[in-house]
Design goal:
Helix content: 55-70%
Structural class: mainly alpha
Number of domains: 2
Oligomer: single chain
Radius of gyration: 26 Å
Strand order of the largest sheet: 1-2
Order of helices and strands: HEHHHHHHHHE
Number of strands: 2
Shape: elongated
Largest sheet: 2 strands, antiparallel
Length: 258
């Protein structure tokens, strides 16, 4: 009669019989969970601003396109019942106002929030180590570097892009947009008193329209690159990306310090 054999599970591969955390948790899973693998980075005002800002920019780009290139004449109803361009302009102005309030709120939070909240508003151009990291990230995005580095906040290359396209770009679009709105609001109105000077500085509103429209295309290009980079880094980097702007926690895929 053959002796009974006792099967001992491989602790690194097979599920632990007494695992309570998860039904199929292995010893390796439990050991990984014990490690500190995430850091809280983005507070809820920063995350809320990010998604509201993204929605506003999407509305502004779509409606701005139609304002610059209006729809052809539509004969589906009497002219008195049509207000298509009026609704498009209303959506554009409403999104711009929300974007303006949100941007000032974001500036306020840069002062009262954690240090990650301030990264959007400066570029440490005098820091030699920072520039080394910028060139490293360029090589990583060009698939020259094989192993990416870990970053808690934005990596240096992303910091440059966010500063120039979001901080300076949003400022430029708000200034030119409100100056154009001042013309429609009329002389003596509050928008005219605050931003009407920009029309005279530029020359005329046609030039200002051109600058504002070109600014929109720069923002569109940034959005495409930003979405691509976020998804790419979520897959290829050593830390979470998209989920971090939802939960606020940066989760790392390994426990190596560098």
């Amino acid at each position: 009669m053959a002796e009974d054999t006792i099967h001992v599970p491989n602790p690194g591969v097979e599920p632990l019989p007494s695992a309570q955390l998860a039904g199929d948790a292995t010893a390796d899973d439990i050991e990984s969970i014990r490690k500190r693998t995430s850091v809280f980075v983005y507070e809820w005002p920063v995350r809320l601003w990010h998604w509201v800002n993204a929605a506003c920019i999407l509305v502004l780009c779509v409606t701005g396109w139609f304002i610059a290139s209006p729809l052809p004449t539509m004969n589906f109803a009497e002219a008195t019942y049509q207000f298509v361009m009026g609704y498009i302009r209303f959506a554009h102005f409403a999104a711009a106002q929300i974007l303006t309030v949100g941007f000032f709120a974001r500036i306020y939070w840069a002062f009262v929030g954690n240090h990650h909240a301030r990264q959007l508003f400066y570029v440490p151009i005098l820091n030699k180590h920072w520039w080394q990291e910028v060139f490293f990230e360029l090589r990583w995005y060009m698939f020259i570097e094989k192993q990416p580095k870990k970053y808690v906040g934005h990596n240096p290359l992303a910091q440059i892009a966010m500063f120039f396209f979001m901080t300076l770009g949003t400022t430029f679009m708000l200034l030119t947009g409100w100056a154009l709105y001042a013309e429609g609001a009329g002389q003596g109105s509050l928008p005219d008193q605050v931003m009407g000077w920009l029309i005279g500085l530029v020359g005329n509103t046609q030039i200002l329209h051109t600058y504002h429209h070109l600014g929109m295309w720069f923002i569109v290009v940034f959005m495409i690159v930003h979405i691509y980079a976020a998804i790419r880094e979520d897959i290829m980097s050593r830390q979470s990306m998209v989920s971090t702007m939802i939960s606020g926690h940066r989760t790392f895929k390994d426990d190596s310090p560098e």
